[in-house]
């Protein structure tokens, strides 16, 4: 059988590294597919998150490439023979987009356009070519406490520079489908958690801080609601969409597990046997979206996918992982020279 090669962008980040570790090397997937992983290795991308698995599996290769560099992207990727792209790479942290939006436009918008241009070249010689954009629930904006969950038909109403850059990328992906006929798919997922997530995001930050009895910075009153999904459930859905999704369609992905931030923080404190006095209410995030919730009826009905892991089980597993892998967080934080200014 001739194997197909798929390009994975952002494969050294949180969701991408879990995709590489758990989907790309699955026996059935490995038989049919090789994966070429690219990543620019920003503060959020760490090659050591995937190095062992890349070294062990012949169907994986890695190259450090920055999607913002259009000439390098064009020249390198044009010479590579691949028949599909799963585009995870992005600047992903809302707080960073508030303090510095420019790089979000450069990577999330212009980087996506560079990838779309190369994809179009590939499509011209291979009509089976497929492009999958990994997007987010945040493009839909924010929900009120009693609003119904977002469906794929919800208007795009992003509120942060991050979500605006992701929505903008989604629109360019759509335009490549409508204008040039590039076969595209878009997935929009809710908040992921699990191993290898940078400790700047809520769950790993709270775990790391609580472990060492540091303050736990809760924005505002901690009343915001997120719809949490375990990263492996998200990646299973991505693979279902990539292999079975209908071209030109958008698929919502979510965990059907809405949680209030303060409750999440308290669950972490309890599991680690710490005291709630560690909670530190700090100034709210600017433009802080109140609530996200995903209606996932479409993907359930059309592709038969649904999330498997409960939030309680996934959180326990995640906390155990961070306890056992404290060196990973240490290396990530050292590399990024990251200091938590809210402590
Ligand atoms: P992450 O920040 O952990 O990883 C992003 C990866 O992209 C990193 O490895 C980074 O080095 C790489 N990257 C950044 N700029 C690049 C560039 N210019 N060229 C090449 N590589 C570059 O993010 P994540 O949480 O893994 O998110 C992955 C994707 O999923 C993003 O597109 C994000 O918008 C989306 N998403 C994330 C969540 C979530 O909860 N984390 C939820 C829904 C959607
Ligand atoms: O220190 C904190 N204190 C706090 O109260 C941090 C870092 C966050 N929060 C709050 C803000 C949010 O309401 O917790 C919630 C989750 O925050 P983040 O982990 O920063 O995630 P969020 O802003 O919801 O965005 C995430 O989900 C959608 C990802 O970072 C995005 O990439 C994804 O698209």
Describe it for me?
This protein has 343 residues and is of the alpha/beta class. 43% of the residues lie in helices and 17% in strands. Strand 2, helix 3 and strand 3 (60-64) form a beta-alpha-beta unit. The N and C termini lie far apart (55 Å). Mean pLDDT is 96; it is low at 338-343. Bound molecules: nicotinamide-adenine-dinucleotide (NAD) and thymidine-5'-diphospho-beta-D-xylose. The site of nicotinamide-adenine-dinucleotide has 30 residues, from helix 1, helix 6, strand 5 and strand 7.
Summary tags:
343 residues; alpha/beta; Rossmann fold; 3-stranded mixed β-sheet; binds nicotinamide-adenine-dinucleotide; binds thymidine-5'-diphospho-beta-D-xylose
User: Largest beta sheet, briefly?
Assistant: 7 strands, parallel
Q: Please work out how many helical segments DSSP would assign.
A: 13
Number of strands: 12
Strand content: 15-25%
The parts where pLDDT drops under 50 for at least 5 residues are 338-343
Q: What name does CATH use for the topology of the domain at 4-194 and 230-256 and 287-308? A: Rossmann fold
> For the residues shown, what is the average pLDDT?
96
Bound molecules: nicotinamide-adenine-dinucleotide, thymidine-5'-diphospho-beta-D-xylose
**CATH first level of the domain at 4-194 and 230-256 and 287-308:** Alpha Beta
* Rg result: 19 Å
In the CATH classification, which architecture of the domain at 4-194 and 230-256 and 287-308 applies?
A: 3-Layer(aba) Sandwich
* Termini separation: 55 Å
The 3D shape can be described as globular
Please, what is the CATH homologous superfamily of the domain at 4-194 and 230-256 and 287-308? NAD(P)-binding Rossmann-like Domain
């Amino acid at each position: 059988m001739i194997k197909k090669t798929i390009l994975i962008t952002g494969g050294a980040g949180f969701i991408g590294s879990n995709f590489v570790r758990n989907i790309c090397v699955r026996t059935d997937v490995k038989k049919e597919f090789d994966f070429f992983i690219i990543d620019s290795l920003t503060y959020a991308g760490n090659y050591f998150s995937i190095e062992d698995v890349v070294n062990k599996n012949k169907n994986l290769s890695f190259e450090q490439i920055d999607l913002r560099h259009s000439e390098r992207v064009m020249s390198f990727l044009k010479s590579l023979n691949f028949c599909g792209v799963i585009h995870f790479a992005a600047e992903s942290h809302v707080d960073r987009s508030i303090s510095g939006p420019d790089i979000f436009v450069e990577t999330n918008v212009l980087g996506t356009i560079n990838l779309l241009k190369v994809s179009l070249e590939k499509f011209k010689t291979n009509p089976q070519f497929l492009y999958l954009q990994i997007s987010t629930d945040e493009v839909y904006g924010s929900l009120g406490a009693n609003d119904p969950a977002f469906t794929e038909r919800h208007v795009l109403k992003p509120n942060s520079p991050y979500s605006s850059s992701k929505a903008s990328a989604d629109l360019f992906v759509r335009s490549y489908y409508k204008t040039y006929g590039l076969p595209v798919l878009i997935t929009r997922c809710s908040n992921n958690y699990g191993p290898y997530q940078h400790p700047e995001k809520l769950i790993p930050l709270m775990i790391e801080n609580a472990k060492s009895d540091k303050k736990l910075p809760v924005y505002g009153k901690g009343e915001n609601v997120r719809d949490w999904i375990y990263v492996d459930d998200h990646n299973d859905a991505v693979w279902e969409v990539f292999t079975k999704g209908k071209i030109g369609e958008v698929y919502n992905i979510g965990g059907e597990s809405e949680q209030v931030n303060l409750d999440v923080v308290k669950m972490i404190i309890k599991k680690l046997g710490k005291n709630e006095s560690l909670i530190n209410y700090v100034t709210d995030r600017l433009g802080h979206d109140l609530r996200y919730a995903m209606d996932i009826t479409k993907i359930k009905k059309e592709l038969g996918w649904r999330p498997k892991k409960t939030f309680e089980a996934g959180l326990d597993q995640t906390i155990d992982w961070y306890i056992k892998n404290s060196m990973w967080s240490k290396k990530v934080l050292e590399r990024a020279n990251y200091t938590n200014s809210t402590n």
